[in-house]
Amino acid sequence: MNNKLSPTEYQFMEIIWEHPDGVSSFDIYNQFSQSLSAKSTILSRIVKKGYARCEHKGKQVYYYANLTKRDYEKLIIQEDIKQKMGFNSFQKLFAAFCGKKGLTENQANQLRKLIEEMEDDE
């Protein structure tokens, strides 16, 4: 994925995320007050960044999310942590949080299992 979504792009993506089976450009356009060309440009940037794809069906263009809202938010959080703190993995972040330089293999495995259990509970 390329770059974070701008606040306006994020608002457009929220409409796309609400429609996992696709949403027409017409339905998206009706949600916003910008000019038609501005709305088209915003959707084009979202597609170019890789967060959505579009398909032409007759005279309509339908948009589909390439990742879930939750996956997008996780990706952004991971990028922010890496950029601001220099950690490229949750294990390193967790170790630093606990005042350690790193985790043992056993600790890393336990942490992975805990994370998987938490994800399964959702």
What labels would you give this structure?
122 residues, mainly alpha, 3-stranded antiparallel sheet, 6 helices
Give a verbal description of the structure:
The model has no long low-confidence stretch (mean pLDDT 86). This protein is mainly alpha-helical and 122 residues long. The chain is elongated. The two termini are 25 Å apart. A three-stranded antiparallel sheet has the order 1-3-2. The protein has six helices and three strands, in the order H-E-H-H-E-E-H-H-H. Helix 1 (7-17) packs across helix 3 (36-49). The chain has helices spanning 7-17, 25-29, 36-49, 69-85, 90-97, 105-120, and strands spanning 23-24, 52-57, 60-65.
How is the topology of this model organized?
Elements: H1 7-17, E1 23-24, H2 25-29, H3 36-49, E2 52-57, E3 60-65, H4 69-85, H5 90-97, H6 105-120
Helix pairs in contact: 1-3
SSE arrangement, N to C: HEHHEEHHH
Distance between the first and last residues' Cα: 25 Å
Number of strands: 3
From the alpha-carbon coordinates, what is the Rg to the nearest angstrom?
Answer: 19 Å
Strand content: 5-15%
Shape estimate: elongated
* Tally of contiguous helical segments: 6
> How is the largest sheet built, in terms of strand order?
1-3-2
Largest beta-sheet details: 3 strands, antiparallel
Mean pLDDT: 86
Helical proportion, percent range? 55-70%
